[in-house]
Amino acid sequence: MSDPMAAGEAADRAAAALPSPRNPFARIARVSARRLLGFLLVVQIGAAAALVGTDIARDVLPALAPPIAPRETAPVAPGDQLRPYSPRAVPTRPGRPDSPITLPGDPSGMTFEMTDLDGYGPVMLLSGGIARGDSDRFERALDMASPAPIAVALHSPGGIVVEALRMGTVIRDRGLDTVMTADAACVSACPLVLFGGVDRQISRKAWVGLHQASVRETTYLPFRIAISDIQTLQGEVMRHTEGMGVDPSVHIHALSTPPEDVYYLVPDQLEAYRVATVLVD
User: Fold this and answer.
1) What HEC string does the chain produce?
2) Once rounded to an integer, what is the mean pLDDT over residues 91-95?
3) Which residues have CB under 8 Å from 70's CB, separation 6+?
4) What's the average model confidence in pLDDT over 259-280?
5) Is residue 224 very low, low, confident or very high in pLDDT (cuts 50, 70, 90)?
6) Tell me, what's the pLDDT at 222?
7) Which pLDDT score is estimated for 33?
């Protein structure tokens, strides 16, 4: 009689001697792992190349290539009137050297200077940014001017809206005209001052630009309060514009232009929206 124990051990030895069956999933896993590692290596190499390329584009190419004119100074044409807002420059135009008009100095406050404007008489030139308290300073300058101006000339990148609103109201209350000479600029909040003129004489070569109002002072206020402030301010802007005899639909362009951009009105629009009562060359 055969020994069952010995037979079992012999069977185990025979089974161990047979080649083990291939595991197809294990092989697939090994291949997939190799491919994944290769893919990750390619991604890393590509990322490194992109970083190097970015550094070259940022640091090396500008030194090799001629400078490109800033986009905010690109000429404006009907239908192509949106440019980045710059408190220092406005677009170029045919017939003028291809360099930006430098807007006046320090945006922290306006200067008020009496001058004789050819063909107009004594005029007060308002130049620079509109800062807090400038409407009071403007009134004092008008009170002290001798001879009294018959008009206000403007060259400003804008500033605080509520100050601009009050300055425009002062101009209208005193029966003054507003004037913009060739290559002068009135941008952002400045048109609200311009609108105050009884007559508004604007050169076809002047720049009038609009964009959305912003409430920078509300940085630390709740979002809903900041939005409410902007809407309230916009209502005041619309009432002021209509009350000065300017078509309030001009603000369609302002409301659709974010604060970092500016929409420049072309001469036909200055007439159509009654921004200018008189257009001159």
Assistant:
1) CCCHHHHHHHHHHHHHHCCCCCCHHHHHHHHHHHHHHHHHHHHHHHHHHHHHHHHHHHHHHHHHCCCCCCHHHCCCECCECEEECCCCCCCCCCCCCCCCCCCCCCCCCCEEEEEEECCCEEEEEEECCECCCHHHHHHHHHHHCCCCCCEEEEEECCECHHHHHHHHHHHHHCCCEEEECCCCEEECCHHHHHCCCCCEEEECCCEEEECCCCCHHHCCCCHHHHHHHHHHHHHHHHHHHHHCCCCHHHHHHHHCCCCCEEEECCHHHHHHCCCCCEEEC
2) 74
3) 84, 86, 89, 100
4) 96
5) low
6) 54
7) 46
Question: Quick one: pLDDT at residue 230?
Answer: 77
Highest mean predicted confidence (pLDDT) among 124-133, 204-213, 269-278: 269-278
Peptide bond into 78 cis (omega under 30): no
Model confidence at 51, in pLDDT bands (50, 70, 90)? very low
165 versus 118: which is more confidently predicted?
Answer: 165
CATH 2.120.10.30 fits 82-276, yes or no: no
Query: What is the identity of the amino acid at 54?
Result: T
Strand 185-187 vs strand 200-203: parallel, antiparallel, or unpaired?
unpaired
From the list 103, 80, 108, the residue with the least C-alpha distance to 207 is 103
Domain ranges of the chain: 82-276
Q: What are 275's two structure tokens?
A: 């921004």
